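Each field is set out as follows.
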Amino acid sequence: MTKEATMDRLHQMRMTMMARAYREQEDAPGVEGMTFDERFAMLVDAEWDSRRSNKRVRLLRAASFAEPEANVMDVRYDADRKLDKGQIKELADCSWIRDRRNLVITGASGAGKTWMGCALGVAACNNFYTVRYVRLPEMLDDLCTEKNEEWLKRKKRYIKCDLLIIDDWLLENAKANEAREILEVIEGRSRVGSTMLCSQFGAGAWHAKLGKGAVADAVIDRLVYNSHVIHIEGEVSMRKRLSTLQKTTRRRGQGPPPRQNVPQMWLNW
């Protein structure tokens, strides 16, 4: 088989990066002294790395994060926030997702819960877990409708992912039918994946918001048991922290800081 025929077959098998590496390998310095196994390993590595990179991009896009640029490396550990750096680092390695444990992030409005949740979600995508981000009101709009084939497909998307991030958790009291739909999702997920909740309220307030009955008991039992908790303290919102940083910079005579020099995570919070 000629070289061009080999290239064509690689493209037909959608091994585009391997084909490119095969072509470039001919001009690589020192390739003449390499064994067949060494050269073949280089081609396989090129295809492997490309596919992993493409998969990561697909996972990030499919997650639909509110803050897609969030990164755990950019977390601010201001003293008043009382964040445990060791805990964040441990959660970022995603072993809790592998073990199907849950995570609850609480804090006042503007504390950075959404950003933190997205940062950990991005870390999960980078570890090749499937993630879905949704606000609870949007999820309920999806599920509290006529139960047909499309409804079943939507419900499965919330259940089948490795990590479901539910933001704005129980900002308002849930109606009886909404509480039942929440239970169905949480029950389905308890056997297949992890759930992350971002809420202004701790678990002690959820029972009343879910109707105080058996459904509320069941939801809380499945979510809180064996869960990690991050509570973000501090009375200053992240937007105000950014404003203070900008004013301090101006007082030092440096002029207004260029927007591109301000960390993206501060702009998002």
Summary: DSSP finds 13 helices and five strands in the chain.
